[in-house]
Design brief:
Helix 1 packs antiparallel against helix 2 (39-55). This protein is α/β, with parallel strands linked by helices. The strands form five sheets. Strands 10-9-11-12-14-13-19 form a seven-stranded mixed sheet, with helices on both faces. Helix content is 38%, strand content 15%. Strand 3, helix 6 (164-175) and strand 4 (181-187) form a beta-alpha-beta unit.
């Protein structure tokens, strides 16, 4: 058969049956050629995706990036990527050669788990339990912001229902009445090492989903008529509930040797088995089948208030005591007044993070995730898919709970802005469980991330403004306590820069801090000045990217003497960033003191805890004296 330009076939159920077999065969061919993959996980879900793409999935495949009301398909069970890629072949956007010879190969866009290297993939998946939470953000955008009729379809595996994030997601979907969100669960009974917890007990799954507020439909996942009817019911909306379709399937369906067998997860079929399976499935096919197209509607414009591009900038008087979390709250409101696509997501701490004013001013653009930090990040990630500018705020310590979601957002290339307040021992009496002391290290490790830690209100406002246009994962760290404004309102804070707050031109030592430790470094400089030691004080507000050139110059001009002080663990924070920058310069001689939180803090006042951790002005001045007196 000539497969160069195969005919597009009308999708009746007889054709769908042929398409199902094609998806199974192509999943086998791709994984056997690559000698890697999960063909049996693809085979269990082939009937589900064949019915979906040919009869219910509204998508203009010829104008994928120019059709705002295209449906979305999220493959939460990302290990079944060969099935997704076989589907792309079936709609005519991936060639047979690319599918069979490209899957899992170095340099190919058909990676072993899906990424947005493909224009039809919204998000990277493969870390289980994340596809559905991300889809909540996309569905929120469609129903509550854009007022578009697109649906968000998610294919989950039954093993990932053990992830708590799945239940956080479905609870939020029910709370926000996301009738445009349809979750299909491929209940094939088998996980990686054997049977799942509930096996084929669809009734137990149904009770759980219903308890969280979903409308549930149970089907035989290999009966095309049942599947077709279930999808039609789901498209009807089911009132204001998200729909969950529980499909009882057989892992390895279509090849008797591997059907419902425990030992075949994550194993490709050896060539003789693959050929036998292809014969059993009726041989290769090269159908191109396309379903309905969307209406090509334009998104609505979200306007809580009249948008004003000419608002005067926020201003602060030098010396005024302002917490940077409060400055962030004011900045995000002003940003929201100028840009209608700025959205804020919170985890039930808006009155502490500073965004309660945004919630009051822009209620349609504020989403409350309650105490669910994984869903907080996932919602922001989903909103970014629809080109919104999400800011997600919570206590910095609790973002660590969502690290895997942040990591996957980086892999997805999502543009999200995370804001963590109440960082470090500076928070005072609340104790170590509330103190973010690992957050900078975590955020620095994320692919292509930006990490910022402003020291005053003026720099906070300037950095929030820039984050609105920043791509990738960004993190802004804010402080609980109020500190004096240090900068004039005209000061510039380019990301990747730093600020020199104090210098004599003939300094003995460089003091580098960020956030609260900038103020402590200034206090140390005053102590040192009384001893005749001149200190240069640098505000490293941009931790990633770091002002490498500026810091190297400062340290060189102060005889290689540098004290870095941070309200953070020594591992992975500002100190390691500075030291890496300095030692990468061949021949540089550096005398380095690194002050960080090395003890286990308790409760107390901010000043007591900074002193106990050895990161206050006295400790900094003593470190500087050691460097100067060492010569």
């Amino acid at each position: 058969m000539n497969t160069a330009n195969p005919p597009i076939v009308e999708p009746d159920l007889k054709t769908v049956a042929e398409l199902s077999a094609q998806l199974r065969v192509d999943s086998i061919r791709a994984t056997t050629r690559a000698e890697s993959g999960h063909p049996t996980s693809c085979m269990s879900a082939a009937d589900l995706l064949a019915v979906l793409v040919s009869r219910h999935f509204r998508y203009d495949w010829d104008r994928a990036s120019h059709t705002p009301d295209n449906d979305h398909l999220i493959l939460s069970k990302g290990h079944a990527s060969p099935l997704l890629y076989s589907l792309y072949k079936a709609v005519g956007v991936v060639s047979d050669d690319e599918l069979v010879n490209g899957y899992g190969r170095f340099g190919s866009r058909l990676q072993a788990h899906p990424t947005p290297a493909l224009p039809w993939v919204d998000l990277a998946t493969g870390s289980l339990g994340q596809g559905l939470p991300d889809a909540v953000g996309i569905a929120l955008a469609g129903k509550h912001l854009e007022k578009l009729s697109y649906r968000v379809w998610v294919l989950c595996g039954d093993s990932e229902l053990a992830e708590g994030s799945i239940w956080e997601a479905i609870e939020q979907a029910a709370h926000y009445q996301l009738s445009n969100l349809i979750t299909i669960v491929d209940v094939n009974r088998l996980g990686q090492r054997g049977a799942t917890m509930l096996g084929w007990d669809l009734d137990a799954y149904a009770k759980r989903f219903e308890a969280f507020g979903a409308h549930v439909i149970k089907v035989n996942g290999h009966d095309l008529e049942e599947i077709d009817a279930a999808f039609a019911r789901a498209c009807g909306g089911n009132g204001n509930q998200p729909t969950v379709i529980l499909a009882r399937t057989i892992k390895g369906r279509g090849y008797a040797l591997v059907e419902d067998q425990e030992s075949w997860h994550g194993r490709h079929l050896p060539e003789p088995f693959a050929q036998e399976a292809i014969r059993e499935l009726g041989g290769e096919r090269h159908l191109i089948v396309r379903g309905p197209k969307p209406t090509h509607a334009a998104p609505a414009v979200v306007q809580d208030v009249e948008i004003d591009d000419d608002l005067p900038p926020l201003t602060y008087e030098i010396g005024t005591m302002v917490a940077t979390r409060a400055a962030y709250g004011s900045a995000i409101v002003e940003l929201g007044r100028r840009r209608s696509n700025v959205v804020v997501v919170d985890s039930e701490v808006s009155n502490s993070t500073g965004v309660d004013q945004f919630a009051a001013t822009f209620p349609r653009r504020f989403f409350q995730m309650y105490m669910a930090e994984q869903q907080l990040v996932a919602t922001a990630t989903g909103l970014s898919v629809r080109n919104f500018i999400p800011f997600a705020s919570t206590f910095a310590a609790f973002l660590t709970r969502a690290h895997d979601f942040i990591r996957m957002a980086g892999i997805s290339g999502a543009s999200i802005r995370l804001v963590g307040s109440h960082a470090g021992v500076e928070i005072g009496v609340d104790g170590p469980s509330q103190m973010a002391l690992e957050d900078i290290a975590m955020m620095r490790s994320v692919f292509d991330s930006t990490v910022l830690y402003p020291s005053d209100a003026v720099s906070t406002v300037a950095l929030v403004e820039q984050l609105a246009n920043r791509t990738g994962v960004s993190y802004l760290r804010t402080t609980r306590g109020a500190y004096p404004v240090l900068y004039d309102n005209s000061a510039q804070f380019p990301i990747g820069g730093s600020k020199t707050l104090l210098t004599s031109g003939k300094d003995h030592v460089t003091l580098i801090g960020a956030g609260v430790t900038v103020h402590e470094s200034l206090a140390a400089a005053r102590i040192l000045a009384e001893m005749g030691i001149r200190a240069r004080v640098i505000d490293a507000y941009s931790i990633r990217p770091l002002d490498v050139a500026g810091i190297r110059v400062a340290v060189a001009e102060t005889g290689g003497r540098v004290v870095v002080v941070e309200d953070h663990r020594p591992e992975g924070g500002l100190g390691e960033a500075v030291l890496s920058a300095l030692v990468e310069e061949t021949g540089a001689v550096v005398r380095f003191e690194h002050l960080a939180v090395r003890n286990l803090p308790g409760s107390g006042s901010a000043s007591q805890l900074l002193s106990a951790a050895g990161i206050d002005g006295d400790a900094i001045s003593q470190a500087a004296q050691r460097l100067v007196n060492r010569d």
